[in-house]
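Notes to self, Phospholipid methyltransferase:
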Amino acid sequence: METTSVLLHSKTIPFSFTISHNNSRKFSFRHSNKQFQSRLSNNNFLFGESLKPIKNQAELPFSLYQSSTSLKSTRTHLLSPPKCSYSGSASTDGSQNHPFLKLFKNLSLDKLKATLLQLTPIDIIKWSGILSIAIAATKWTVNLVLNPFFWMYFSWTWLFWPWFVAISLAVYGLYCFYKHSIGEASIFEQIAIVTSVFTWLTLVPPAHFNGYLQGWPFVFFFVYHYFFFFNVSVRKRLYGDYYARPHDPKWDLHPPRWSRLLFCVGVMIGHWLAAFEGPELHLIPGGWSNVGIWILILATLLMQYNSTFYLAKYSEKVVVPIAVVQFGPYRWVRHPIYSSTMLLFATYFLALRAPLSLLFVVAVCLMYYAQKAKMEEGLMIETFGEKYLEYMGKVRYKFIPLVY
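result:
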């Protein structure tokens, strides 16, 4: 079989041709690993002629196939041709349809000039103002972030009390209090009421006057929670849940609404006055000078717990007493639960070094609790008679031993 091979190489792109003068003339073409096969329709093959449709494949004078052997054996150039890949129409369309490239597809200098020429003086002033504000805000932010004094006070304790959090918590606490007033508050909502109140008592006032928080406000925020949940924890211990049991409503003794409102307002004002009167938080001494404060905190918690425990032990459904309690703190004062509350407030004000505010809040508590204690003692005398009168003769002081 007579075969003539011709190998042509381009300096730019390697092509390989092989022509066979036999019954089936063959033509191979290689371009960067892209393989094509075709059959030409004319025995007198010329490179300038157009291709015609072929009816019979046996009449094909040429065949196009890959000639890797010819390419390997007849390559004459010294440098290997660059291996270029050819992307099809699908990838080209994908790049043209890319959303990021579409922004630059229609961008031209003429359009930019036309847009700038359409700007009015008002537009220029407006965009210049926006750009100036953006630059100023960026400069202020960078200077603030790089300022060491900012990071000195920007701690997690300062993040605890931002105003929008405190106000949001107060609004939610009022909503939960409304649900509690109509008897529909859940346990979580009751906790939210207490937390919102204690936030505005112990955290917000000193944070407002100092600009940050540290030390005693955080301690008493948790101490207040622990103190006022003793009653709930006792109910949980006795009944396995937090819900009050039905009882005789005559034991639900409450002073008039105006008196309760004045008491709440007075306690709130007292805490704000303490934050205003006391020195800055970082000036309050630490170390051994605060040992007495911790002793008072422990005494307050023990008095509240023992008072609640003994009262619940000798009461039915926690509220209705079945005997005159004369044990524990009841040996010293007749109303130790109220005494422990006043002691808690007094300890907080002593920790903040605010003696005048201490006298104010003690006066508010004495006025309110004296009214409430009078109502309770009248009901106790009505229920237990001589037994309670005998107890009153034995324990002469209502709230403060040897004082009142």
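- Strands lie at 25-27, 30-31, 34-35, 39-40, 62-64, 315-316, 320-321.
- Residues 1-18, 23-52, 54-79, 84-92 have pLDDT under 50 and may be disordered.
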